[in-house]
Every structure is written in C-alpha cells, then in structure tokens.
Amino acid sequence: MPIWLRFLLVLWLAVGSAFGFSRDNSTSDSVSVAELPREARQTLALIRDGGPFPYQRDGIVFGNFEKRLPLEARGYYREYTVESPWRRDRGPRRIIAGQRGEFYYTDDHYRTFRRIRE
C-alpha cells in the first residue's frame, strides 16, 4: 500500500474517532415502548401491522450514511415518519426498522438514536 494511502487511512481514522464516528453501534441509549411519545407508539403499531402509512416516504430504505446504527448491507433498514403535530412538514421524528425486527427511535432527524426495548 502506498505511503500516501496509509497516511489518508490513518488521518481518516483519527478524524472519525475525534468526531465520534465508528464502526460500532452509536446507539448506547435505549427507550422502552411505554416511554415513547404517543405518536411513536402509533407509528410502531402501523409498522407491525404493515400499514397503511400516512406519509408517502414511509418504508423507504434508510441509508445509515452517518453510520450511527450498526453497519448492515444497504436496504437492511427502513424508515417511518413519527408525526410531529406542531410541524407542517414531516418533522424530525422517525422510527427505523431493521430486517431482524429491531427498531430505533430518533427525535432529532438522525443525529441520535435510541434502540426501542420491547
């Protein structure tokens, strides 16, 4: 491997760890279903029932580009809108569903996630 490529790799790893990026799960926090806002519990019920979903973009692939959830193949995660009644748009709240049945909640538009405990 050329030395310049090694340098870039070391720099990337150093910068990534300084800003909290890692290959590990950054969802150390969790939340029980009972602790979720009412709208999030409703969205979770819709996901389990297979819809119908109120927003056109519900069920699209969540890319996990920020790598704040465990790394999986593209298409593994799907995102669903949690209604924010005080907003005219979709708002910042989402539930992310993994293919193995795990769920994550974010109320700050993907900056932080909490795994939902059943």
Features of the shown structure:
118 residues, alpha+beta, Nuclear Transport Factor 2, Chain: A, globular, Ribonuclease/ribotoxin
Percent helix? 10-25%
Q: Within the CATH hierarchy, at the fold level, what is the topology?
A: Nuclear Transport Factor 2, Chain: A
Q: Any idea what the CATH superfamily is called?
A: Microbial ribonucleases
Q: Which spans of ≥5 residues are poorly predicted at pLDDT below 50?
A: 17-27
Structural class: alpha+beta
Q: Averaging pLDDT over every residue, what do you get?
A: 85
Gross geometry: globular
SSE succession: HEHEEEEE
Tell me the strand percentage band.
Answer: 15-25%
Protein name: Ribonuclease
Organism: Dechloromonas hankyongensis
Keywords: Hydrolase, Nuclease
Pfam families: Ribonuclease
Describe this structure in words.
InterPro entries: N1-like, Ribonuclease/ribotoxin. Pfam families: Ribonuclease. It is a single chain. With 118 residues, this protein is α+β, with helices and mostly antiparallel strands. It has a single domain, classed as Microbial ribonucleases (Nuclear Transport Factor 2, Chain: A). Helices cover 24% and strands 19% of the residues. The chain is built from two helices and six strands; from the N terminus they run αβαβββββ. It has helices at residues 3-18, 38-49; strands at residues 30-32, 60-61, 77-81, 94-98, 103-106, 114-117. A six-stranded mixed β-sheet has the order 1-6-5-4-3-2, with helices on one face. The longest helix is centred in the first third of the chain and has 16 residues, at 3-18. 19% of the residues are buried.
